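pinned: reference chain
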Amino acid sequence: MAHNLQEPRLDSVWLSRPVRRPPSGQNPLSRDQIVAAAIRLLDQEGLGSLSMRRLAADLGVAAMSLYWHVPTKDALLEFSLDEALGEVNLSVDPDAEWGGQVEHILQDLRRVIGRHPWISQLAGTYALVGPSSLRMHEALIALVEAGGFAAPHAYRAVGTLVNFVLGFAADEVKWLLKMRESKLDPQDIKNLWLPPMLDVVGENYPRMRANLEAGASREWDDHFEFGLSCMIDGMRARGLKGD
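pinned: its structure tokens
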């Protein structure tokens, strides 16, 4: 419904003019209701299930009535993405060391993505410029600056950290969905995957084989915490001061 909205800049609804609102009393819906219903559908059935027609049916309205509030399906996905990111807990222990505070927020970002697996798919498609995303980035930049980083290095550091979480979660989500479809738990995957992997590696890749055999744990939590702690430790060691 292009007549409801000026052409977006950089293909983001957040960088566009507001959607034209319906006359009072003509549309009982609100954008919040539409976005909440979209998130429920995405959580239950995934990205492939979402269409404006399906969503309108779930809400008991005509599809055309949705376009007063969300001009396109892409806009709806952007609204839903930012609403879900608003669940990230930005409150931190004020007495904790700055690195621990950063880790707390990023751990919660991963948790939210686990609750809404479609986030990892959308985050690589749409710019994270909605209000919830901006609040998260602002909080992280403030913490990174407290750790000694000055502009523009603080912004770069936060981007690197957030991209690590998004990239890690994207792989994790794929495996979790695969396990769910196969009705397997993580231990089953490890038992099924490791022996044939070792056969493939054989004696030709001794370092990889040694590391696979020595791994005390191959759980996602351990991998994530190890990677994140290495990044935070690296930031501590570098200690940029705006140079």
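why pinned: The two ends are 48 Å apart (CA to CA). The chain has eleven helices and no strands.
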